[in-house]
Specification:
With 245 residues, this protein is α/β, with parallel strands linked by helices. It has 7 helices and 8 strands, in the order E-H-E-H-E-H-E-H-E-H-H-E-H-E-E. It has a single domain, classed as NAD(P)-binding Rossmann-like Domain (Rossmann fold, 3-Layer(aba) Sandwich).
Length: 245
């Protein structure tokens, strides 16, 4: 076990896009970042961070392989004996964003989306909570989306009213429910749990039409990952603003 005193962050899907930018900005704050990556042979993200002077490592983590939950736990426990920050960044969109597909969406798409965006996230978090409990100021950040807001979807004049990607949206609504319940379960600990909407970002998921650049995509996650002792828990945020459930 490492005897160093750095704060440790584990970021799933940390090899590109929002996850990589989150790792970069946490690393710039002096936090040691561990990237959870599906292909550990692809070391480009790790090399990029290290070239920028960031203390970074990468381990195999795949939402489709439950055994990698235990791999991550064993690695973090052996190397650090704790986990200060868990950023559940990995996710997937498997349907068009526009158009209401609730009548015709194949069950397989719904199940696959929930497996990646919800069940795998819950499973990993439950596996790693014992290590987060060993932190003096544990933080869990769940990457959600404003598209998970039932309040906004129910309003016909809402800016997201037309964006009815049923499987993706519903999986993020479920993720938000997990945030609320997990925050309540950990209310008597120093751990803070929150959902983050990063914005509509130019990533493979967000597409080229998105208005936000990757360089600005990690602000909400980093803020929630580094909250002070008086910060919120059990909330849903974009930058410093609360979002409606």
């Amino acid at each position: 076990m490492s005897t160093q005193k750095s704060r440790i962050a584990f970021i799933t899907g940390g090899n590109r896009g929002i996850g990589l930018q989150t790792a970069r900005e946490l690393g710039q704050l002096g936090i040691e970042v561990i990237l959870g990556v599906r292909d550990p042979e692809n070391t480009s993200a790790l090399r990029t961070l290290r070239a920028e002077g960031i203390a970074a490592e990468a381990i195999h983590y795949d939402t489709a392989k439950p055994e990698t939950d235990q791999t991550a736990f064993a690695y973090l426990e052996r190397r650090f004996g704790k986990l200060d920050i868990l950023v559940n960044n990995a996710g997937a969109l498997q349907e068009p964003l526009m158009g209401n597909d609730a009548v015709t969406l194949p069950e397989a798409t719904l199940r696959d989306t929930f497996e990646i965006n919800f069940f795998a996230l819950v499973r990993l978090t439950q596996t790693l909570v014992p290590l987060v409990r060993k932190s003096d100021a544990g933080r869990i950040v769940n990457l959600s989306s404003v598209l998970g807001s039932l309040t906004l979807h129910a309003a016909p004049d809402s800016p997201i009213a037309a964006t009815k990607a049923f499987a993706y949206n519903a999986s993020k609504t479920a993720l938000n429910a997990f945030t609320i319940h997990l925050a309540d379960a950990l209310r008597d600990t120093p751990i803070k749990v929150n959902s983050a909407h990063p914005g509509w970002v130019k990533t493979p998921l967000g597409g080229p039409a998105a208005p936000m650049e990757i360089a600005d995509s990690a602000k909400t996650s980093v803020r929630l990952a580094t909250l002070g002792v008086d910060g919120p828990s059990g909330g849903f945020f974009h930058t410093g603003d609360s979002l409606p459930w």
